[in-house]
Structures are given as structure tokens and as C-alpha cells.
Amino acid sequence: MICIPDGEPSKTNLSIIHIEQNVTASRTKTFDIFSNYENYSQILPSVFTSVRIRSVRNNTAVSEEHIEFGNSELVVMAKHVLTPPVLHEVFFIGGSAKGTSIKQQFLELDNGTKVIIDIDYKPDKTKLLSSLIGKSKNDDNFQKIFNAFFDCCK
């Protein structure tokens, strides 16, 4: 499910993408799949063509990632901040889509886990106009990426 919170998009939330889905896997297992950035290229090779870990300190890591995003490739420096097993935050601190943030929350349910994802997408300035015109494509591209993660949680 994708929606823009609070109704009509405004200049401040035009790029916000919201995804929610329940999965049958436990919260710990679901968190482990979504936050396993070291193995993204093995888990989802069609999405993450390359992941190189640059730095790890406590629950924070920086990685260089090549991400297939629709008909293009995002090359980003990503900062992963983990709060097991409830929160995984990703900040694109360099490269394509610098300034993008992805917040993944994992809520324990009686029969599985509710995953709530909020994406504040900041496209490369050279692609800004086409990104705004093709916002539904961005929504679809993120939905496809996270559907692959949801499939791993079955």
C-alpha cells in the first residue's frame, strides 16, 4: 500500500512515500532480513548489484550501494542506523539521491510483523523534473524493491 500522508501533497511532503505491510515472519526475523545490508547483493541481486561496506561502528554502518531503480541505477553512499529489532533507518549521505531517508519500523503482531516504511525521496537535481512528473513511477520502483524484501519474509 502506498499513500501520501495527510491527504494532498505539499511542497514539503511531495517526495514522501509510505508503505505498510503485514508479514507472517517474527519481528526479529523480519528486522534481520531488512537490516542485513551486508548481504543485500546476495539476497536481492537484481536490485542491489553491488554493496561495499566502508565503515561499521556499533549500530551504525556506511556502505556504497548500486541500486537498480526502474530504468536507472542509483549509486549512493548509505548510512544504516539500527535499533534492533524495531527500527532500521537509511540515509543517503552521498551520490545519487543524496538526502533521501528511509525509515523502516517493525511492530510485533500476534500473527507476525507489521512493517511501516516512510521514504523521503530526494532525486538527483538533474532528474528532479522528470521525477516529479513521474512520481507514480518512483512509488512503483520503491514498492517493487520492498516487495522483494517482503517476499523474503514469507
Detailed description of the structure:
- The chain has 154 residues and is of the alpha+beta class.
- It has one domain: START domain (Alpha-D-Glucose-1,6-Bisphosphate, Chain A, domain 4, 2-Layer Sandwich), CATH 3.30.530.20.
- 23% of the residues lie in helices and 45% in strands.
- The chain has four helices and eight strands, in the order ββααββββββαα.
- The protein has helices at residues 27-34, 40-43, 128-133, 135-152; strands spanning 2-3, 16-23, 48-57, 60-69, 72-83, 87-95, 101-109, 112-120.
- It has an eight-stranded antiparallel sheet with strand order 1-2-8-7-6-5-4-3.
- β6 and β7 (101-109) form a beta hairpin.
Brief overview:
The protein is of the alpha+beta class. It has one domain (15-152): Alpha-D-Glucose-1,6-Bisphosphate, Chain A, domain 4, CATH 3.30.530.20. 23% of the residues lie in helices and 45% in strands.
The CATH topology is given as Alpha-D-Glucose-1,6-Bisphosphate, Chain A, domain 4
Count of helical stretches: 4
Average the pLDDT over all residues and give the rounded result.
87
Strand content: 35-45%
Low-confidence spans: 1-12
Give the class from helix and strand content and strand pairing.
Answer: alpha+beta
Largest sheet: 8 strands, antiparallel
Shape: globular
> Percent helix among the residues?
10-25%
CATH superfamily: START domain
Distance between the termini: 18 Å
Give the helices and strands as they follow along the chain. EEHHEEEEEEHH
